[in-house]
Fold these 4 entries.
Entry 1:
Amino acid sequence: MFLYIYSTVSLLTLHIHIIIFNISKCPAAIFDYLRNVYHCEVVRILFARDKNGPGMSVASRQHSQESFEQAPMYVAVMTYLGFGIVTLFGYFRDFLRAVDLEKCHVAQERQEQKDFVPLYQDFENFYTRNLYMRVRDNWNRPICSLPGPVFDLMERVSDDYNWTFRLTGKTIHNVINMGSYNYLGFAENNTDFLKTVADVTHQYGVGVSSTRQEIGNLSIHEELEKLVANFLGVEASMIFGMGFATNSMNIPALVGKGCLILSDELNHTSLILGARLSGATIRVFKHNNMQSLEKMLREAICSGQPRTHRPWRKILIMVEGIYSMEGSVVRLPEIIALKKKYKAYLYLDEAHSIGAVGPSGRGVTELFGVNAADVDVMMGTFTKSFGAAGGYIAGKKELVDYLRNHSHSAIYATAMSPPVTQQIIRAIKCIMGNDGSTEGERIRQLAKNIRYFRARLKEMGFILYGNDDSPVVPVLLYMPGKVVAFAREMLERKIGVVVVGFPATPITEARARFCLSAAHTRAMLDQVLHFMNEVGDTLCLKFSRRKYSSQPDLHE
């Protein structure tokens, strides 16, 4: 009965939103006010664009291509209302569990251990047991095929409201993959393309079972490091077997106590973990906000360390090339200018940008036309554009030599698997055109897909975040009920999407995150767009109040 009431209230909330959405099209006073506010914002944006003029710099032009449109006020109100209703029912169900009127499935303390220090904090698990469990079927879906542009899913159902799942034995075939980081389409099983990988597997096996400092240093590891350095245009590079550990285990080797880290507020968890493990002082500046960064740099130089006011041993600025939740691109030329002005160091994480942006896939340094030597530490991963695993650190030879002797990943971690190493070599050679293929062919296809997909979604009326060159395309859904409904409706139409909500995003900015690939055909994208338009109308997801031309180049 309580579950019926809970579902009824959630459905009522969705109907109230649809009513308000339709009312918004009428000339009511509150919506006239919202339209006036929006009109002022458009005038401001247009004025800023005209002020830059046609001769604006690459950095200014890239920044002007980023969009972070705000939703109407009623959307925020309905989002908070939805979370409020779900939270109230969560506390009510916790009460029912406490008095044994509802069975508790979640892990809890044993009765004889009630006086011990609690192992499971009830409040910390509140979101998991009362909110996440209701929608858990939208994540961790079992895939039973190659995760290329399409894949197969194993169908599963739950008999206890997502606490457990059982497989039905059926397979959902040819689901279009819009969630994987397969930017250049190298997650493939073409035997002609993978012949060199198969040969290396026969020669070296699949594992090394040793660190590179002992007996795990293979010739193909050194070949890959030279190839990465040549590809990036730097003196040297070093590879690691895990992308996450490339950040979390190397940052502590570069900075420590007495050092200052200035970190973008939207940096990845691996960067945050590495900064915390280092013992350095961490200060967070607003996302891509140069005024906030410069203010912190100026204060750091003027005031020095707390209490002692001694100068900082190092000041390290940590940013990402493309931010994976927002789809925004770092303002690299301006950050380099600030770094030089205040004698700081720059750590650039290109996990999502290397291979995906720039005319030849060399990342944001190529996109902005800056010198790679101006970036002190270049980091990237092979897990996305290269269809493999692991990561790298690149820069001056002194930096790489230092990390070989001080990095925990270099000293204690097992060396990269030989077939993975060869897959990365194959991918980089293909990007560079060294294997006989046309240089940059996949990169150009990816860029076409990105522009086409983003432009069509904007025309439909969806609110998108990020840069027009970013392969990460966040579509804002806002309300928790819509997030769940969107993922389920798209899967019914054989479209696999990734939906993200609180606490991974701000509470009012839940979204679906699309990842474009060079392997997506125009027919695939048109099919996804067709169903996006259909589901967007059904769930009332078209919140944008801006008008976009079908020919943006002519419009500009």
Entry 2:
Amino acid sequence: MDSPSKLLPLFFALILLLFLSIPLLNTHFSLLSAIKIICRRTYKPSYGLATTSNQRDRNIDQSSSISRAISPNISECFPAVLPSNAITRTDCCPSKPPFSKLIDFKDFASPNATLRVRKPFHLLDEEYIAKFEKGIALMKALPDDDPRSFIQQAKVHCAYCNGAYHLYHPFQETQLDIHRSWFFFPFHRWYIYFFERILGNLIGDPDFALPFWNWDSIEAMKMPSCFTNPNSSLFHELRNPKHLPPHVIDLNYAVGNIDVPSHQQVLYNLATMYKQMVLASTTELFMGSPFRLGDNPRPGIGSVENAPHNTVHTWVGGADTPHHEDMGTFYTAARDPIFYGHHSNLDRMWTIWKTLGEGRREYSDQDWLDSEFFFYDENANFVRVKIRDCIDTKKLGYVYQDVDLAWLRTPPTSQKSKLLRQKMKAQVLSSKPRELPLVLDSITSVIVKRPKKLRSREEKEEEEEVLVIEGIEFGSDKYVKFDVHVDDDEERLSNPDETEFVGSFVHLYHGHGHNISTSFKVGLSKVLENLEAEEDDDVLVTLVPQLHLSPSEKRLKLLKGFVHNFVDEVR
């Protein structure tokens, strides 16, 4: 992947366009879909980005040298857009920034500095846990108007995630949300970096490193015990009591999931990690889609942000609060101390992903590198940071302790024969044409044409075949999850540790009063190879909605959908 002839590797994108809609005024979840299949060849995101349909629609001149980097207008902070029945007020604005004291980040670690080492909670000794508890306690004891206080730090996350900050003119109506785009990883890296520095300053230890919840490790697939002591500053009331230790975490959790035996859940988790890390071989698949000035602010979610990021948030969140507060929804998530251990491990995933080969690297796009965020440091200085300055954790003074990656040795496997998969495809192809509109009250399968078949090893190293579900639209205050299967049997759908189960789209409760339009992508190259389907002309794609309904909603029709169009189109 490093040879000059491969500087501009391409990938094929196999597009399945599904337009999903959840009416804002109704209580039920409905799915409105118009299906298009498009064969599209574009530059691999790590080396260049093609013009998106969103950019074309807005008539933005792609040849312009004007920067389209994002910078929030922090001079104004609006009421946050919260879910209906929110348990807090809409004031998510952090302490008003002192613009006269604004400084640009320059506090890079010197080349000879001793690096802080972030360690997993399950390998910490009692002394280190006590330091972490002390730091959180001191942060909680600060006055509420101190920008370093625990509540003010939590408000930072709410402001950046729930629309309290807008962009500058002429995009002042665009509410900034750092999820579902290429901002997810760098924003949270900066966020917990300053949180870590504040903790270290309060306990008088500049070498303090924020531990991580190592939920991808077999030994740590349960909530760290230090968070369950009612007398600890790490304890939080609003958590699901059924998910306390020794309960094994579900990294692909859906609200209402039926528990499986612990040993089986561990295998599911390992396979989930393999899929989210290994199958996401391109920058966009892993980090999320580009969001520049003038773009759709929620263009597409990255693999790990979907799961285990969103799924762990929901798994930890309260069972009896309206939207699984605190961890289960973004406006309150950072009020739970476990949030920071969760995101420390997510940041670790970014560092690991780059080591998995196939030319993996971050975006080199200047609009991404020049985008800005604002934080308070340990001395309450107001600091402006750029994404380009957080790429290398060593320059920020920290690294992660090496831990065994069992999931890297645990790829999913298929229990179904090729003959059975071909039979299932044939049944869908030969079935009676569906009457339109179609009610989607259960799983739905469609045949999708492939852009190319039987590629050479060299082509597969340069190209990725990607299934893209685009134009997903739903009400922002809804919990949405659907699983995606390829060449599977509707009568016996594969489990998360099987190859045919390729991924899940997950949306947490967010704001209310508006629709979200976004996309979902998953790599298929390794999947098709493992299924011996590389010579097939098409794939069978099955969507499996996972619904969470209130008691009143359960009395309504669970899912309605209308397939309006089926177009086989080549661009």
Entry 3:
Amino acid sequence: MEAKKLGLVLGIITTVAAFTRILYILEAPEVQHALLGEFNFIIPAMLKVASSPGKEQQEKPLVILPNLTSCHESMGRSDLPVYCCPPMNQSNVAIIDFQFPDPSLPLRVRRPTHLLDDNYISKYKKAITIMKSLPDTDPRSYTRQANLHCLFCTGAYNQQGSNSPLNIHRSWLFFPWHRMLIYFHERILGSLIGDDTFALPFWPWDIPEGMVIPEMYMKAPFFHEARDFSHFPPSVVDLDYSCTTPSSEDYRCFESGLGPEDQVHTNLVLMYNQMVAGAKKMELFMGCPYKAGEGGSCNGPGTIELAPHNTVHKWVGSNLNPGSREDMGVFYSAARDPIFYPHHANIDRLWDVWRTLHGNKVITDPDWLDSSFFFYDEKLQLNRIKIRDVLSITKLQYAYEKVDFTWLNNRPKPSVPLEVARNILRMRQNAKQQQLQRNDILSSNFSPHGRFLDATLRTRVNRPKVRRTKKEKEEEEEILVVHGIDIPEERYVKFDVYVNVVNETIMNPRFREFAGTFVHIDQGVTRVARESDIEVFRKKTDLKLGISELLEDLEAEGDEYIWVTLLPRSEGCITTTVDGLKIEYIR
């Protein structure tokens, strides 16, 4: 590039010299005037070329690609160094581009865990037993398969062309990367027993029939000791599970205290919010756009990743493992538990269901579509696979057995009659009127350094647009943004967000006032161990919650402001700060 610029400069000097000589030779004034006109055109054009970027200078695609030669020790938790790297250097391994399976082959059909028969369980048992017997030098082995999740969830790999660590949680990489993981895991299991039709099961904890730990996962080789024994069947899964860490010696989680029927109902209402009411736009469901390079990372999970994904991980993890409820309760060790795979098969199914419910929407940004990862297949070939390759499960030759979307008919209702709530909120406003400054709630409740979540936070947030038309609401979703969430220590943090609540003590996701939840599972990526230094890598989080339908149900669409309550659900909130709350609109 520097040589190119030098050549252009020399060309301009030569041109000037030549024109000067020509003008000296040609004495006619009219000829000199004409040539000067051409001279005044040519020189600026040459300068423009010199200053304009060439192809190599133009903006490069910000696609994500892991650097397989950069694998290093990482942090499973903020206090636990882990080494998940393959036993052999991957730099000399031949890489092939992923090819779709032969469409003439039979479809692999993933079935719900509660409908599996003895013949299938026998085949799966044989496959996983063989996988567990393979040596760690074999990338198909159970240990290597589990370590894949550790590698990409703790920052063990850098991005290609950058020193930035790569992490596939809390962004739009979450769904496609996990689809790739279980897809190749499934193919490997099938090949180990010579069955091209073998498919992983999915654990449908989102429907009443599947809201307990599947029976087959209570027996070897699917049983895993590092689980919470109090959550064994017939305990109903809590999709809004909360834990707290008062001290390193005393790790406690809060049971909901609900009976089985109430717990099932609460789960269904939560699913409705996470799949429908709170997830009407792409980013709200998929997560924030994560781009390549040091300035491209983001920290903004989608609805399903926050809950029930994160909450089920914690609910399954062992209460005997202080700190993070390993194995399922923290990312570096989660895939060691065989139940990880049906859990994520259900997450994958819900991505497909969401697309069906919302018109088969897909992200069109090439930086997302062309981001690539590497996975070994059943033939020990290292595949380069792009996100665009995994958008159609039909092309990948698998499908899900249909189950009822029970949660689709569980739109929540307000906790108290709306007229009662409005009267109470009106009295609250009158009482707070003297504390408000120019209706700017952020300046009166949040300092420049944020606000600690060491107690329930109730604040008023102004709405820029009121009484929007039906068309406007279809085009733009109103979102409540809890921005600048800062977790200084890598800890488990959970808080719930409510709108226009009059009694916080009875609140849970069953009620329409519930806008969403924030669930942060510690993953250790805030401190990444390198050969020469320790890099601090932490970004504040923005929680974006779709509230258009909520405001409609609370009859608050015409209000100029709403009352927002942040309800801490974990001890980690004590050191967590929030920069503020605001209303935005997203198309």
Entry 4:
Amino acid sequence: MASSSLLVHRVCYIALFFTLCFAADPFVNFELEYSYITASPLGVPQQVVAVNGKFPGPILNVTTNYNVVVDVKNKLDEDLLVTWSGIQMRRTSWQDGVLGTNCPIPKGGWNFTYQFQVKDQIGSFFYAPSVNMQRAAGGFGSFIVTNRNIIPIPFSPPDGDIVIIIGDWYTRSHKTLRKDLDDGKQLGMPDGVLINGKGPYRYNTTLVPDGIDHETINVDPGKTYRVRVHNVGVSTCLNFRIQNHNLLLVETEGYYTSQQNYTSVDIHVGQSYTFLVTMDQNASSDYYIVASSRFVNQTIWQKVTGVGILHYSNSKGKAAGPLPDPPNDVYDTSYALNQAMSIRQNVSASGARPNPQGSFHYGQINVTDFYLLKSVPPVSIDGKLRATFNGISFKNPVTPIRLADLYYVKGDYKLDFPTKPMNRPPKVDTSIINATYKGFIEIVLQNNDTVVQSFHMDGYSFFVVGMGFGEWTENNRGSYNRWDAISRSTTQVFPGGWTAVLVSLDNVGVWNLRAENLDRWYLGQETYMRIINPEDHSNKTEMPVPDNALYCGALASMQKYDFISCFCYTVFWFYS
């Protein structure tokens, strides 16, 4: 995740783009300015990354098929990239916002304009910085894609929308956390959990000091709200619950789910869920909103708990007493696994298109390629702490991969990522997967690390067909869900266990596969899939490099200097 150098000065662009076939779809424009502000979410003044002066950043709300233009200004003191977790960036990995596909936005007031279409997507997502562990300091916000009016939703329209951003939090700066990892140290226990950028309500005078600002969600009795929850934290799975209220799960990361009630839900790092919550209590007092750590020693981690307040307009008093209980045994991964596999796709509901979500019969498609990605606890490689997939700790290319392809930069990366763990010492390398366009692949994530991991794939959603404990074997395929497995972009992998996913490779580009746990990601637990259509000679399946692309590495001399460029980014969209 260390950023590459970029030999450039400020460039101002006026973008007139998507002038042909996207003209029928509306445009929406956002401006996001990244800067530091001082905040004290846990009572300790610290530097956080704000977006437009806000922490967390503003909610970006768009509609299916909208053309989205986001001008990002970097006023930080280090390079920046913004990624859009779960947004598939159809045919345009140029906009994905990770170092394998983009040169970073230089520090000191530089701008870069992201330009993409939310093609055939609905749901709850988020945006966040992808480099230098900056997400540990903020810079994140909710990204919502609402359905078109002509497409029915599988529930009655809610009375309102609520966004809740949760995550573990350190009072040490992201630069200090980075240095700790560089020095071979573990990050240790977080200092707390934030809810919408605020610390816990003082439910316990011993655990929570006085003077901490907490989040309050105001609601009206009898109404039903759509509650979107994102875990944008560093590495901690959080159990989310609202005292005395059921959480009716309806959507996760772009796909409607079979609707069922939960009293609490484990939300892993990088995951997003949407619930319907009805305000059906008597409002004798306010109610706790809780996000507490999972799979850790609660006696030691008791302070790693976020607490907000749900306030009815007719509430008769403040919340008091103990917090609502989490699942009985915080170490019970079997309970957690069963809950995860209970989340299934609503196969009869329409998603972004009129046809039912279940009309893609993934369980009947023959697998063309198989990958087993094994993770282990971080190891020392050449004297440095590193994290690996299949014994390879990823080193970001000097030049982004597709730029290297386009301009014939040799030796930038290798297409030799192993399909399974190799019997050899671990190494640092720029090794990526040479995936097959229109292939249908099976990926098994084997977690031999000691912590729960979140695995994320850019550019796609995958079907989570199986989970289990122990070493995966081919016999485990008999337990796969081949009918209504949930499709999503981020899944959990329990320590000592495995998760199996299936994905159809119909999106040309270069796409990041990574651990969402920030420490593991920073230490190199990632790779990329390079998916190229060898028969495409006219940009029908992949958009051309944008005119405002930044250049770095071997192509740094191509970067334009100190001028205003007015360009037309004309796109021929051939969508099948």
